[in-house]
Every structure is written in C-alpha cells, then in structure tokens.
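TL;DR need structure tokens for one chain.
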Amino acid sequence: MGPIGGERPNRGRLARADPTEVGASEVKIVWRKSTHSGAGSSGGDCLEVADLGISVGVRDSKAPQSGHLSISRASLMTLLQEIRSS
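>> reply
TL;DR here they are.
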C-alpha cells in the first residue's frame, strides 16, 4: 500500500503530531498502520499506532471509533519483542 495523500512513508518510526496543526487545546494525531496490512485473506485486519508524546496509542484499524489504548514506549517494545520471539 502506497502513501496516502502524497505523504512519504514513515518507516521504522511512529508518526508524530504535526506541531503546525496544534490548536489551543488539541493536537492532530496521525495514525499509521503497517504497509503489510491488507495482504492475504484477512482484508487488512491490523493495529494502528500513533505517537502521543509520552506514550504510544494503539487501536484496531477496523474499529477506530472504539477508542485506543495508551501504553508506554517501553511496554510497546517489550510487547513487540515477545511477539517476535513467539
């Protein structure tokens, strides 16, 4: 899957909120999902991640309206290491 809206892919890093889009009380959060999503028969089932500053947001790409989990970067790295070693 290529970049959306002419954006360049952000490989190996979480997307950061654009500081030029910071309002008085809100920051635009940019959600990213793997370029591998959509392959096979799963139809793109995957998780999306976003840089929330001091934590990382994780949500279901099929149900983004259901909210997200906010976890520390260290916890995310531990989770990914566990998944990779399984």
